[in-house]
Amino acid sequence: MNRRMLFGSGLARAFACLLLVVTTFVVSPRLAAAQANPVAQAQQQYDGGKFAEALLTVRNAISTGAVMGSNVIGARELMARCQVKVGDAAGARATFLQILRLDPQYRIDTVRTPPDEVEVFQQALKAFEAEQLQAKQRIPASVTAFYGIGSGSNTDFGDYVKLGGGDEKFDNKAMFGFGVRFPLAPRWSLDLEMSRLRATNEDTVRVTGSGHGEYELTATPMVVSIVYLVRDSGKLRASVFFGAGPMLNSYAADKFSLFGSIPIKTTDTKVGKYLHAGLEGEYAFHPKLSLTGRALFRSAKAEKMYDGLTFTQYATGNLGNRDLDFSGYGLTIGLRGYVGY
């Protein structure tokens, strides 16, 4: 009797030891693998219903860079699913949206994934598709070259030239320039533009021994504008714009000959102020090329050129403290090329 009991208990202990050894060999590699792979560990926690712990594990793995390459998508998916389970639907949508931005072809397995998680993914997918549609509607970046005419009579300087028999109004030359435009939103764009303004004049008489006088006024406005697309009918577009910036290289030159033989040239350079607002029309004759036309009103002035100067080449008057002024209207035509299609 005792022998049978001893034999039975010994057999039980042997079986228990064998079971322990088998369990160790089977489970230990899985535990080691889970510890080596935090995403696998998080998956085990998720499968065990420990959603908060799983979320913490996978989030730490992503933030510390423990997940690399193609495994990032799977890690973020698990993170989003955990967020759904802990009640953070907004966070889950944001995580799913990040996945779709990384891989637009990504789709969740609707068969194996619980319905509550699929529902949140579908919400993120709709938001992503709306983003894609908006991006297609956004006008791409472009570069423009333009040419035109505008105001530039500069009557303040003209009053001085008139003393020498010249015209009170300067002869404003054609303006030209270029611009770069960047999309901000489907109807909003940011435009960076630089142009060249120039006007000339001359006197007609020789007073106090001075020779023929020639005058030149120039400026280079650098303007940042906000552009709003009012109408888009495919090939035809209409926009309004408003912008401001410094009027660089505001330059005035008075060139004459002293006693008819000694060349004299007085110059001054300042930075003025420039503002403009107007309308723009555009006709696209090619997917990447279009003709543009603009009508604008501008304030373009550099005050007190030759500040403090007391000088005249005529019998009366003073060249000092004159305003360089191209304020008024502007009309331009141009060619725009689109990039980013």
Please tell me about this protein's structure.
- By secondary structure, this protein is an alpha+beta fold.
- The chain folds into 2 domains: 37-136, Alpha Horseshoe (Serine Threonine Protein Phosphatase 5, Tetratricopeptide repeat); 138-338, Porin (Beta Barrel).
- The protein contains 7 helices and 10 strands.
- The protein has helices at residues 2-36, 38-47, 51-63, 71-85, 89-102, 115-137, 155-162, and strands at 142-150, 171-172, 175-183, 188-202, 214-232, 236-258, 262-286, 289-305, 322-325, 328-338.
- The protein has an 8-stranded antiparallel beta barrel with strand order 1-3-4-5-6-7-8-10.
- β7 and β8 form a beta hairpin.
- α2 (38-47) runs parallel beside α4 (71-85).
- The protein is elongated and about 100 Å long.
- The model is unreliable at 1-7 and 25-34 (pLDDT under 50).
**Poorly predicted regions:** 1-7, 25-34
How would you spell out the order of helices and strands? HHHHHHEHEEEEEEEEE
Largest sheet: 8 strands, antiparallel, barrel
Percent helix range? 25-40%
Distance between the termini: 93 Å
> Domains counted in the coordinates: how many?
2
In short:
By secondary structure, this protein is an alpha+beta fold.
What distinguishing features does this structure have?
341 residues, alpha+beta, Serine Threonine Protein Phosphatase 5, Tetratricopeptide repeat, Porin, 2 domains, 7 helices, disordered N terminus, Outer membrane protein beta-barrel domain-containing protein
